[in-house]
Amino acid sequence: MSWRGLRDKWALFVGPVVILLAWEILSRTGVIRATFFPPPTEIIARSVIIFEPDSGLGGDIIATVLRVLVTIVLAVILGVGVGIAITASQWMDRGAHTILAFLYPIPGVLFFPFLTFLLGRTEMAIILTALVTPLIVMILYTVAGVRSIDRTLLEVADNYGSRGAKRFFGILVPGSLPSIVTGIRVSLGFTLIAVIAIEMVGAPNGLGQFLWSNWQILRVTDMYVALLIIAVIGLISSVGFDAVADRLLPWRRDVRGAQI
């Protein structure tokens, strides 16, 4: 990376470094209780539990990441399909808008008890509960994307007989792609939050369950290790998605650069 690149990126790291340094000093000097706020260096040193064969975090990390991947893939496939279908008629648009406005303010984790009545404490119940909020987000962004397509383009497609799958994959999906990509990025964050919250209350494994169980027995350092890993997964998913999206959709990088 060039000097100019380093200069542009340093602001991304200086904030977290300052916070961690202040935390380290306050904990080491006793200003804050090290029992509840252990120094960051101890938390990092304790991160070796990721690789412990019996009580390690490796299995929990894999379980959480798999749930996030399955949930976001389902949210994108269903959200894009439903979102485009909704725009097919004004009647469906109004009806779906009422349902989405009713469901959107409800935290997704609150659907977990109802789904356990039907499915028990199964993996299916966890995935479906985590799916609620990102699915709604994907539908809303897809609808907004379709509405942003130039009406002239749609009329030309109609005049040339573009119907069915040809219209779906040739006009609607490409035309609404900028909004869909933004929706995926937002949904990715909601998915991680939902999965962790559900794991805390009803999953047999996962980072959320590990964090919650260690909080209950006041194994504070291990709790912070899980919290640190969740933050790293969130950072990697966000930065990684931007990197992949920028490579696949070069115009997106140009638009973001113009907004800075």
Automatic annotation (TrEMBL):
SUPFAM superfamilies: MetI-like (SSF161098). This is ABC transporter permease. Its main location: membrane. Signal peptide: none annotated. Gene3D superfamilies: MetI-like (1.10.3720.10). The lineage of its organism: Bacteria, Bacillati, Actinomycetota, Actinomycetes, Micrococcales. It comes from the Bacteria. GO terms for biological process: transmembrane transport. The chain crosses the membrane at residues 61-86, 98-119, 125-144, 186-203, 223-244. Residues 61-245 form the ABC transmembrane type-1 domain. Belongs to the binding-protein-dependent transport system permease family.
